[in-house]
Amino acid sequence: MSSVSRRDELLDLVTDHVLEHGLIGLTLRPVAAAIGTSDRMLLYHFGSRDDLVTAVVTRTEERAIAAVDALPPADGVRAGVNRLWEAYQRDPMHGCLDVYVQAAATGLIGQEPYRSAVLEANERWVRALRDYLVRCGAPADRVGRIVMLVDSSLFGFQLDLATDRPGELARGVDDLAAAAQALGSETMRS
Amino acid sequence: MSSVSRRDELLDLVTDHVLEHGLIGLTLRPVAAAIGTSDRMLLYHFGSRDDLVTAVVTRTEERAIAAVDALPPADGVRAGVNRLWEAYQRDPMHGCLDVYVQAAATGLIGQEPYRSAVLEANERWVRALRDYLVRCGAPADRVGRIVMLVDSSLFGFQLDLATDRPGELARGVDDLAAAAQALGSETMRS
DNA sequence: AGGGTTGTGTAGCAGTCGCTACATCGCCAA
DNA sequence: TTGGCGATGTAGCGACTGCTACACAACCCT
Question: What predicted TM-score, i.e. pTM, was given to this entire model?
């Protein structure tokens, strides 16, 4: 049936619009007008604004994960983290992660549907990150610990991207990358 | 004159309300009713909603900085970062940083006044963090690099606080703390 | 004593919000 | 042919938004 594909088509258009204009403050009529439809149709295909938001968050996350999956592995964890950071700053990942951060910030105070959407998205995201770092040579028995450090920290750098100069951030990221590398190769102290 | 103090009084009340109900989606009438005044009065004292938001962001940041300044220094950078993280999870810092993250996420797409407010707040915040780490024994010539790593990363952990279990995050934070400590004590490799 | 500033209440403006009722198309199956 | 069903347009609902006009009371300065 055509309704499913039409919904998918609309979802991609809405997602593109959100990537440019932000998730926070998204309202139906402007986005509908921008993509050549009406709020009436968005409600018809998605049920409610909340369901639309959830779908957009999921779609951006799918794109981001696809970008990570397509990233050629680097030689070692340190190089891998740095390559990851380069990808964070380029499209399509940059915009997708911005959307994720906006959703996570909104969900911080427990606001639905953001909180649940981010919770599920984060789970899949961590899995993609882990797979990538394994491909870069991270030892399987420590990759969980590495990902915990790298994932959280890189989101922080992503947040600071709006306030700090990218050059200085890059040095911080490399320090993080070196620490992640050490987590994988050194003997654990504690 | 009393108008300044009345404004200040209102600002504290609004800030308390924002700490509970979030900055994103803040509207005048509900917050005014909750603190026993009217939207009319908020506009009178703050000029516009945007100016109110800016003032709230600045006030929460002042509270957070005061909490950092009041934090007893730890012995060494690693212990300092861990103590910082403990403070992040307690009030008053926890709520304040949530508000900061919400403002930063909104400012990510260049939306004013969030972007400018966060930009200025971040500058003062980094200064407070650096002072604290110096008090913990961070070497003065490397504390800038340490703060760059710690500040960004801890914001990431703050974001993940909504999705991950605090216990697992704590291990990640300690890994970060160890890396920060190493940055201050080891011979730089690059 | 009286004029101006400052704070506050009442009422309302124009605009936007998510959402819905209703009518209407075109299509495929019986 | 016709009847039902998916898709769409029109119009509008009640609620809410930031903000403002106007009146009034209390105070300080002269």
Answer: 0.93
